[in-house]
Specification:
α2 crosses α7 and α6 packs antiparallel against α7. The protein is α/β, with parallel strands linked by helices. Helix content is 46%, strand content 10%. The protein has 2 domains: 160 residues, Orthogonal Bundle (serine acetyltransferase, domain 1), CATH 1.10.3130; 95 residues, 3 Solenoid (UDP N-Acetylglucosamine Acyltransferase, domain 1), CATH 2.160.10.10. Strands 1-4-7-10-13 form a 5-stranded parallel β-sheet. The model has no long low-confidence stretch (mean pLDDT 88).
Length: 308
């Protein structure tokens, strides 16, 4: 037996062992029944949506004003087909959790109509999403002395992609679509460094200055005109567990941030019963686990001692 045959036998043995491991733990997208869309597929349709919201900013297309109508129409048609298909796959997956679906299972594909309805509703929301994003970009321009124009914000700030993706994913989250909203949010997380759960409710005029290292939990509620700096965490204090030791789902775990609040770099605000009152300012590196009254300035002890 020559060296090439030995190498082939070695690889065949390794492939067999790896295949057994993958089949045994089910941590792969290889089901015979209803497969899920892959990460790249979700990212691709998300990029199409971003290019519809901001033509010529996201994507590689060079769009002239006289071509805008045709571009939007063609893009929406493409997005409708692809996204509806992805949502149907995710809904079929959720249906399979009760009992695995086989390749010819009549339940596979029964969610296509619902997926189509959800997709159309999202597309119908795009004009409103676009308007709200306009307020977000304006807040960024007005809130950052370094911003030369709103166009500069649009073309270069990572925050723009983070909040745009969130506002899309949040609509799908509200429609109770499994997996897809979270996959979208993780696309933005990997690209921008901002981790915003699609369940978070974020009012208009929102801005993340420097746009990196921010974490916003699922049940966070943020009002209008809120500004966060880099490294802010809006998180949970703890994870209550049931009698079997499993985390309890569906409860309020993350804070409320009222209108006009500013939270500086590195601050952490935790807990579902914590509210930061309207117009308050939270200084850098503060650790907040209880509510703050409106129009309050909170500074860290170290900052206060230094000031004195």
């Amino acid at each position: 037996m020559n060296g090439a045959d030995k190498d082939k036998m070695g690889l065949e043995g390794l492939a067999g062992k790896l295949g057994q491991a993958i089949t045994g733990d089910h941590l792969a997208n290889i089901w015979e029944g209803c497969q899920l869309p892959g990460r790249d597929a979700v990212a691709q349709v998300l990029d199409q949506l971003l290019s519809v919201l901001f033509p010529g900013v996201f994507g590689n297309q060079v769009v002239r004003e006289d071509e805008l109508g045709d571009f939007i129409l063609e893009s929406l048609a493409s997005v409708r087909g692809a996204l509806s298909h992805h949502i149907a796959m995710a809904l079929d997956y959720r249906s399979s959790l009760a009992r695995p679906l086989g390749a010819d299972d009549p339940r596979c594909g029964t969610n296509a109509a619902l997926a189509g309805e959800v997709t159309v509703k999202l597309l119908e929301q795009l004009p409103l999403i676009r308007q709200v994003l306009g307020l977000d970009l304006l807040a960024a321009y007005e809130g950052d002395p370094a911003a030369g124009s709103v166009v500069e914000v649009l073309m270069s700030y990572p925050f723009v992609q983070a909040i745009s993706v969130h506002r899309i994913a949040h609509e799908l989250y509200k429609a109770d679509v499994p997996l897809i909203p979270r996959m979208m949010s993780e696309v933005a997380h990997s690209r921008t460094g901002s981790d915003i759960h699609p369940g978070a409710v974020i009012g208009p005029g929102f801005f993340i200055d420097h746009g990196t290292g921010v974490v916003i939990g699922e049940t966070t509620v943020i009002g209008r005109g809120v500004k966060l700096y880099q490294g802010v965490t809006l998180g949970a204090l703890s994870f209550p567990k049931d009698k079997d030791g499993n985390p309890i789902k569906g409860i309020k775990r993350h804070p409320n941030i009222e209108d006009g609040v500013t939270i500086y770099a590195g601050a952490t605000v935790l807990g579902g019963e914590t509210t930061i009152g309207k117009g308050s300012v939270i200084g850098g590196n503060c650790w907040i686990t209880s509510s703050v009254p409106p129009e309050t300035v909170v500074m860290s002890e170290r900052a206060q001692r230094k000031h004195k």
